[in-house]
Amino acid sequence: MQEIDTIPSFKKWLGSNKKKAVAVQSLDLTSLEEELHQKDSSDCLFLGCRMSDDLAGHLVRQGAMVILESDKVKFQLHRAKLYTAKELFKGFDSSLENGYHSTFDYQIYSEYLQQGKDKPSSIQTSLFRRLHDHSITEALEDAIRGEKVVAIMGGHGMERSDPFYLKIAHIARILTQKGFLLVTGGGPGAMEATHFGAYFAERSYEDMIAALNEIKIRPKGAKKGKEYNDPDWLARALKVMKKYPIPKGKKQKSKSIGIPTWLYGHEPPAPFATHIAKYFANSVREEGLLAIATYGVIFAPGSAGTTQEIFQDACQNHYGSMEYVSPMILFGTKRWTKERPVWKLLQKVAKGKLYGELLALTDNEEEVIRRILSYQADLYRI
């Protein structure tokens, strides 16, 4: 079924004499209602479109499916595109100590808490969230189509001054320049470092270092491992983004996708991500994030969440459930052999399996880059 999410494409379909079922997404159709009344729209889908109740009723009687937006929630039930940082951070006030709490993103999170996190207050709320997440998955699939996707996983508590933050940014910058699409869980710490590096793919390394030196300066008395709670955390990032914008016409070459969740909505999404696929359902988000990383996953230092993701990815590779196996690179020898000693167990689990050839443990960012660049996807399809 053809998907239509622009007015010119919709007008083209509207003017055609041929009967064709289409999915129309997130369009304001109020100025085209008269023409639409004359069109056979049976078997069509109208998802998140603006229209009168009269037109909606007419379309349903014809045999179309219509899902209108609702004023009962702050978020859109159906989106045709992924979020942008600008959209999610709308309303941010840097003059307020809790300026992030004024943003559209945090308003949705507050509503999410009020209506119930894992146990929504009503079946209607649950359905609204599922419809939203379904549209995010559809938009994400569009955004990654034809891309060589590499994921970087790692701890949200990693500070901008941590040596690994720069290492991760360097890896992400080079891989983005080499034509890979970097994705993460879309939060702060190691995740932000990934998007920070991709953001600077079309700027000089010196610019990236200068920007990092600005954003890593924390307020006096700031709590260790909780940099995203600093009152100026977001303001520092937005300031350097304004000072060092992506060069005109180069946004596609600086593209990265953050995939966060409102389950962890107390953590702001990574502002340097050019696209953000934010979900309500963390299970859908987390499994999907690993599944789309067809060119490998890099596991930077992290805690319980990253440890879980290592074995979640191993499970996908072990059983070939995604019809391919891809590199698993544990980045941080001390972290993964001493502090979180999963390396030996992972090797035992992978012994005799195809993905065992693709395991690596290293502290060297150039080794990480080399392993991703040398991966030959066609040899590891199942």
Give your account of this protein's structure.
With 382 residues, the protein is of the alpha/beta class. The protein is built from 15 helices and 11 strands. It has 2 domains: 2-67, no CATH class; 145-380, Rossmann fold (3-Layer(aba) Sandwich), CATH 3.40.50. The longest helix has 22 residues, at 123-144.
Q: For the largest beta sheet, what order do the strands appear in spatially?
A: 8-7-6-5-9-10-11
User: How many helices does DSSP assign?
Assistant: 15
- Just name the CATH architecture of the largest domain: 3-Layer(aba) Sandwich
User: Please, how many domains?
Assistant: 2
Task: Say what the CATH topology of the largest domain is.
Answer: Rossmann fold
Note the beta-strand portion.
Answer: 5-15%
- The gross shape turns out to be globular
Low-confidence stretches: none
Gap from first CA to last CA: 29 Å
CATH top level label of the largest domain? Alpha Beta
Order of helices and strands: EHEHEHEHHHEHEHHHEEHEHEHHEH
Question: Which structural category fits the helices and strands?
Answer: alpha/beta
Number of strands: 11
List keywords for this structure.
Rossmann fold; seven-stranded parallel β-sheet; 11 strands; globular
Compact summary:
The chain is of the alpha/beta class. It is 42% helix and 10% strand. The protein is globular and about 65 Å long.
Record the SSE blueprint.
Elements: E1 2-4, H1 7-14, E2 22-25, H2 33-37, E3 45-47, H3 53-62, E4 65-67, H4 85-88, H5 104-114, H6 123-144, E5 148-153, H7 163-177, E6 180-184, H8 190-199, H9 205-215, H10 233-243, E7 256-258, E8 275-276, H11 282-292, E9 297-299, H12 304-319, E10 328-331, H13 333-339, H14 343-350, E11 359-362, H15 365-374
Parallel strand pairs: 1-2, 2-3, 3-4, 5-6, 5-9, 6-7, 7-8, 9-10, 10-11
Helix pairs in contact: 7-8, 7-15, 11-12
